[in-house]
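[09:14] KT: can someone run the structure on this one? pasting the chain below
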Amino acid sequence: MAEIDRMLEANEDWARRFPGSKPVRPARQVAVVACMDSRMPLFQMLGLEVGDAHVIRNAGGVITEDTIRSLTISQHVLGTREILLVHHTECGLQATDDVTFADTVEQATGRRPPWAARAFTDVDDDVRESIRLIQESPYLLSRDVRGTVYDVGTGRLREITDPAAPHHSQARGGPLQQGQESGA
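[09:31] RB: done, structure tokens below
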């Protein structure tokens, strides 16, 4: 059976137990930006229920233009005011770099992605960079943001409290932002 078939069957079970709709505005007025990693069960690990928070996930949990778009809608239209970042140990984006990734995609498809993968080597620095990007966004009503790193081996979150931000990411305005030119 295909995995999607299994998911559709699971939805039938969910629909039988469905408690009913919740308000569109998150009850806890928080947005969570996290990596898409399947080892992070965000609702369970953060004590969230359906309807409590907006959850925005992408590769690495990095702050991209689309992440800012989603956070802006979350705040202006749906009333969220706090942002929690959840990055994690052993992230797949630590296993590559932007140029190598773009080269791999181009070799496989014949097309070079116009966006940067936003690979990183130090997860703590990447959290700091994400905090900086949120704090510098002119579109958000609230820049009340805190960053964490989830340890995939222990299940614990560790808050990044050191405000020192690393150098500006090459992916933010560097040559990789404008078409992924080859070479480092």
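[09:33] KT: thanks! DSSP finds five helices and five strands in the chain.
[09:34] RB: yep, looked fine to me
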